[in-house]
Amino acid sequence: MHRARASRPARSLSVHLMPGLIAAGVCACIAGVALMALLLAGTQGTRQGSIGQAGADWAALARIVRFTVIQAILSGLLAMGLAVGFGRALARRRFVGRRVVLALLPLPMITPLIVGGLGILSVYGQQGWLAGYLARALGEDVVFNIYGWPGILLAHGFFNTAFLTRLVVQAYGAVRPQTWAIARQLGIEGWQRFYRIEWPLIRTAVFSGGLLVVGLCLTSFVLILMFGGGPGKTTLEVAIYQSLRIDFAPARAGWLALLQLALCAVFVVLFLGLGGAIQEDAGNTAAQPFGLADGGLLGDGVWLVLGGWFALAPLLAVALSAAAAPWAWMIADPIFYQALLTSLAIGIAAGLCGLLIGGSLVWSACGDPRWGRFFDGVGTLWLVMPPLALSAGLFLALRAVGISPIGGGPAWGVAAVIGVNGLMAVPFVIRILRPPAGRIAKRYTPLTLSVGLRGWRRLWRVEAPLLRRPAALALALGIVFSLGDLGVMTLFGSPRLQTLPLYLYQLMAGYRIDQAMAVAGFLLLLSLAVFAAVFALIAGRYPRDGGAGYG
Amino acid sequence: MAELHLKDLSPQRDPSLRFDLVVPSGGFIGLFGASGAGKTTLLHLIAGLEERGTGQVLIGGEDQTEWPAHRRGVTLLFQDHNLFEHMTVFANIALGITTGTPTPAEHVAVTRAIDQVGLTGLEDRLPHQLSGGQQGRVGLARCLMRRRGVLLLDEPFAALDPPLRYDMAHLLAALRQEHRMTVVVVSHDLAPLMAHADGAAPLQDGRLGAIMTWAQIAQDPRLASYGAGLTSQSAHFSAESPAMP
Q1: Cβ of A2 and B95 within 8 Å?
Q2: DSSP A200
Q3: In this complex, do B69 and A450 lie within 8 Å of one another by their Cβ atoms?
Q4: Residue A328: how many CB atoms within 10 A of its CB?
Q5: Whether this model's pTM surpasses 0.80
Q6: With contact defined as beta carbons under 8 Å apart, do B145 and B109 qualify?
Q7: Across-strand partners of B226?
Q8: Contact: B99, A450; criterion CB under 8 Å
């Protein structure tokens, strides 16, 4: 009997592995260098006894860890609760402006954190809308301290509720309309219907999305920096920053960063164990009129107003405050232009870096399904990789080889900021590109093998045109995320390396709130404009696939 | 034109399937069998798209078992997903001759193929702008452009209404004559092939049977479901299609 040698299809597919392996190698190198630097700094501190000075305050350390975990869990629960009510009302009601609300829901996602934080201050702060309204209504000043728990929860809620709400609406959209008809026929209404029918159908989306929110809040930095309000309300990320840039205690920063990495690793295990993968293409966002006759109109109305206010009011506040801000001052400031150009350059480079790495991982995951889980895992891991811990590792690595990350010239800082921001964009690139790329691979691989369309030529003629739209979305998101980054920049930023968020933060720290509002408004506009422009330029006219749904 | 010879061919993922077959040069046969019997797997094995466990594929007397899919002396019309949805009719067909930009000579060849399958005037359309029958013709034209000795077709009639099935079989026979190809068609519906093919082989219990004549299939009690279909379709065909010789 003739025994087969290695089969041809497998061999021809193996060329798909190379880009993914290179991308995974780059990821491993950066993570490895950062980890080594953290370990070295930590152990050096232990030998020199600095851990005794800085890290041995175990009570303080335990307090930081406890606060980090509790604020993340509470933020996740708040966002989940709001998203279920708001999303349910959005899913089952048809009303004027529904499409506008749905279209605006992704806005918080592309809003720079510091701008959103400023919006929260404008709405809920001492001088904000709410305090002003209550003062007018009650006839006396209302003392409302936004700093601490209220600010942290409100800010996290603003950024995460909209994201989770969209998942809930999509989960409802995935339910077959007959389900609601059957429920009505059986007389299952009101709370019974929610508990027995709706919740089992949406809980996967709610829990997986909620877990993701908890993970993101575990690594929250900018919002805690803005609203933390003192040592009692500090997370590990903020503590790392303070150790490196304020206390100049690299050993303590190293240990804190390692602790943060360990915490995130535990979370990843829990996340995967609890089935935290988010369903792709869970459903559409069309209204499901399953409850129009059951008298829940008032409740839904309350949820819609509450959810809409929560998710969109801070953005409106920034827009209105910015409109009245001193723009002329900003336009005359040369530092503004330097920060603008640096932000754009870093943003574009980081977006491209993220697309290149994420795209390579996706290409290989689809090209050889046996390696799919590995490449998906390498890409998704960065979702819970704490950016400040990673940045601290690179910061310490540069110091270890004798380069001052701040004084050694902007080039090193720029490279580190681009690298970290690019890597942080990778999970989003994977999430956006993977499903359509998988469908294309499944559908066209036999055909491309049959006609000999391989390698670059296949990428150019098949994947590139069909993935143009999702790739444009991934690139636009990567650029905008980096454009709004403050966390990594707080470590590497210097008078010679300024970005718009850092410039804005410095204005806020100097209590120049009017000027900060102008910059915040500009940053928000810039983010939206860059997102729209990149998407429009690259996505082009669509669809050309006959509605096959690759985007 | 080339002889197709399979020797103890078996897929890696299902060793229980074993195929032996000889289709003489210029032959035209059908393959039939129940759903899940391995018909598509067989075609993919021949075309080099399925990982092989054992056996050999000889085309025109040459052992092409280890050849990559795009170099083999066969071309396969898939059951579905034959066309790149974002490419025009012209671009889809041109892929059969080049994966790059067609030269002027290739351009002429593609235009001729479009004419042969009756799609002149539809060159710039996208696949979703065509009917199922037209889409099948685009796939067929691309197969012809590849100028291989053996043409394999996987359920080419599945997406077509009954009258179109006979048109497709007729077109297939005409193109086979013109391009001098050996043709193997997998189909649940054997009736459209009766007027043109030499016979058909059953795929049962993981094995390919010998090539049978239409009369043998119609009379074999083990193949009653196919035979009955053949008899009724044959009557229908005789009554409605003047193309039948």
Answers
A1: no
A2: H
A3: yes
A4: 9
A5: no
A6: yes
A7: none
A8: no
The reply to whether B70 touches chain A by the CB within 8 Å rule is yes
Residue of B nearest to A446 (CA): B49
Whether B138 and B127 have beta carbons less than 8 Å apart is answered as yes
Sorted by sequence, the CB contacts under 8 Å of residue A487 that are 6+ apart come out as: A221, A222, A237, A387, A388, A391
B116 to chain A nearest CA, in Å? 20
Which of A2, A11, A453 shows the shortest C-beta gap to B56?
A: A2
The per-residue DSSP string of B75-137 comes to EEE-SS--S-TTS-HHHHHHTTT-SSPPPHHHHHHHHHHHHHTT-TT-TT--GGGS-HHHHHH
pLDDT mean across residues, chain B:
85
Closest approach of chain A CAs to the CA of B18, in angstroms?
Answer: 12
Nearest residue of A to residue B85, measured between CA atoms: A545
Give every CB contact of residue A381 below 8 A, 6+ residues apart in sequence.
A27, A268, A427
The pLDDT of residue B227 is above 90: no
The residue type found at A59 is A
Contacts of B8 in chain A (CB under 8 A): 1-2
Judge whether B61 is closer than 8 Å to chain A, CB to CB.
no
pLDDT for B140-169, tens place per residue?
899 888 888 999 999 988 878 888 888 888
pLDDT below 50 — which residues of chain A?
1-13, 51-52, 54-55, 278-282, 291-293, 542-551
Across the interface, whether the CB atoms of B68 and A449 are under 8 A apart is answered yes
Q: Which region among A54-63, A298-307, B57-66, B170-179 has the lowest average model confidence (pLDDT)?
A: A54-63
Contacts of B96 (CB under 8 A, 6+ apart): A451, B75, B113, B141, B142, B143, B144, B145, B146
Tell me the longest C-alpha to C-alpha distance in chain A. 96
Contact A451 B70 (CB under 8 A): yes
- In chain B, residues with a C-beta closer than 8 Å to the C-beta of A466 are 85-86
> Helix, strand or coil for residue B156?
coil
